[in-house]
Design a protein that fits this description.
By secondary structure, the protein is of the alpha+beta class. It folds into 2 domains: 3-136, OB fold (Dihydrolipoamide Acetyltransferase, E2P) (Beta Barrel); 158-308 and 368-476, BirA Bifunctional Protein, domain 2 (2-Layer Sandwich), CATH 3.30.930. It has helices at 3-19, 35-44, 85-88, 90-94, 146-151, 153-159, 161-183, 224-233, 270-289, 312-320, 330-339, 350-362, 415-430, 441-447, 461-469; strands at 51-63, 67-74, 77-84, 104-113, 119-130, 187-188, 194-195, 207-210, 215-219, 237-245, 257-266, 293-296, 299-302, 309-311, 370-376, 385-386, 389-400, 403-410, 454-460. β1 and β2 form a beta hairpin.
């Protein structure tokens, strides 16, 4: 039977319910117990079956003549319901024929166990709460069509318990991050989504227009520059968990909008942040996954510290044989990068080339948590130079499951140096690098008022959740990922 025919039959049932004086979409229902609470009441009862009022979506229907069973599922789980004609009366029992899988039902009755030991509600009365006109996924116990799962996430959540568990885990991750930072004296703040200048990261922005102000704005590509303004203003520790927007590719690692944690701490450096990251992630893992050792495909990811701290130069040299220190100019490094099998563009600067070497040859091999440290200055226009090695900066990225999860550095607080680096970034942008930083004069003015020694951290919440739940695609951990427009009707 086609979907159109199923919908037509369900509409006929809807009409019969209304003809019988039943409102199939009532405004309210006073549920007193979740499925889990009802079962727990039965387990703790010393005599007799406790009375409960439960509600949920019908996920199974089994008619046995003058008695029927159905399963209700709510946010806490599943519970079985037993309905008898003798108890409900012939008219109410007959109307059960108008129910379908996917409908919502409220039930009041007493708990008991069947002969097989199944916790069950013996219905004294029921209330239709919502008549579903479309059928649930064909494979109720496992929707497999990836396109449908992402485009119609509600069907995925209906059919796949693992999907629900993933998003519960995501919520726990965010809550645990907040608790961790709050306990360390960080202040959670909110900063603008609309930026006059897109800064704080190397990325292509989305552009929008503000009618009332008659000016162009950009959806933020980072939280960084506003948060550092707050350190300048006198806060010592701040953080924000916010949505970021980057007008870039879509893949298993990238979504145009994603969730980022950024934190800034005055009088700290990148070494302190490495310690904090190890402590944060290793403390979150047991809360979410039950252990610091979490299965991931055919391996196990161990989040327990300490994590290795590997100079970026050594990591690239080991995997490619290329020592970027031996290639001080972009042209020389471009040839070496191309010879390693990486596609290069003529306008790419030295920093972009090093980043491509990292992405292609090093990142996929970093399965266990690890820090890569000490990046070239061309790759990090907002980071502090490393004492004794002014061509490098005090920066680290950390990787888990072959993906970058976080980025941090000792912040550049010299306004003269910062202006010079912005100018160099502007030169790269003029040469064709659309991801190069833009000169932000307002931020430079703020920096000229004085920024104390500060360390800043950014963590991709989506990728952290991927690592902690075993997800292999970022779309598995974003409720409504960006998708191409659907072709056809």
């Amino acid at each position: 039977m086609g979907e159109d025919e199923i919908i037509a039959l369900r509409k006929e049932k809807l009409a019969r319910l209304r003809a019988a004086g039943i409102d199939p979409y009532p405004a309210r229902f006073h549920r007193l117990h979740t499925a889990r609470e009802a079962i727990e009441l039965l387990e703790s009862a010393t005599a007799g079956g406790p009375a409960v009022t439960v509600a949920g979506r019908i996920t199974a229907l089994r008619n046995m003549g003058k008695a029927s069973f159905l399963d209700l599922r709510d946010g806490s789980g599943r519970i079985q319901v037993y309905l008898k004609q003798e108890t409900l009366g012939p008219q109410a029992y007959e109307l059960l024929r108008e129910l379908d899988l996917g409908d919502f039902l409220g039930v009041t009755g007493a708990m008991f166990r069947t002969k097989t030991g199944e916790p069950t509600v013996e219905a004294q009365e029921y209330t239709v709460l919502a008549k579903a006109l479309r059928p649930p996924p064909e494979k109720w116990h496992g929707l497999q069509d990836v396109e449908v799962r992402y485009r119609q996430r509600y069907l995925d959540l209906m059919a796949n318990p693992q999907a629900r568990e993933t998003f519960v885990a995501r919520s726990r991750v965010v809550a645990a991050v907040r608790r961790f930072l709050d306990a360390r004296g960080y202040l959670e703040v909110e900063t603008p989504v609309l930026h006059g200048t897109p800064g704080g990261a190397a990325a292509r922005p989305f552009v929008t227009y503000h009618n009332a102000l008659d000016r162009q704005f950009y959806l933020r590509i980072a939280l960084e520059l506003h948060l550092k303004r707050l350190i300048i203003g006198g806060f010592d520790r701040v953080y924000e968990i916010g949505r970021i927007f980057r007008n870039e590719g879509v893949s298993t690692k990238y979504n145009p909008e994603f969730t980022m944690l950024e934190s800034y701490e005055a009088y700290a450096d990148y070494n302190r942040l490495m310690d904090m990251v190890e402590e944060m992630v290793s403390s979150i893992a047991p809360e979410v996954a039950g252990d610091t050792r979490v299965p991931y495909g055919d391996t196990v990811i161990d989040f327990a510290p300490p994590w290795p701290r590997i100079p970026l130069r050594d990591a690239i040299l080991e995997r490619t044989g290329i020592d970027f220190e031996a290639h001080p100019d972009a042209e020389s490094l471009r040839r070496a990068t191309a010879q390693s099998g990486v596609h290069v563009e003529e306008h790419w600067g030295r920093g972009k080339l090093i980043d491509e070497l990292l992405t292609a040859h090093v990142e996929p091999h970093l399965l266990q948590p690890a820090f890569l440290i000490d990046y070239p200055i061309e790759l990090s226009p907002l980071a502090k130079r490393k004492p004794g090695a002014p061509h490098l900066v005090e920066r680290f990225e950390f990787f888990i499951c072959g993906r970058e999860v976080g980025n941090a550095y000792t912040e550049l607080n010299d306004p003269v140096d910062q202006r010079e680096r912005f100018v160099e970034q502007a030169r790269l942008r003029a040469a064709g690098d659309e991801e190069a930083e833009v000169v932000d004069e307002d931020f430079l003015v703020a920096l000229e008022h004085g920024l104390p020694p500060t360390a800043g951290l950014g963590i991709g919440i989506d990728r952290l959740v991927m690592a902690l739940t075993g997800a292999t695609s970022i779309r598995e951990v974003i409720l409504f990922p960006a998708l191409r427009e659907k072709e056809g009707p």
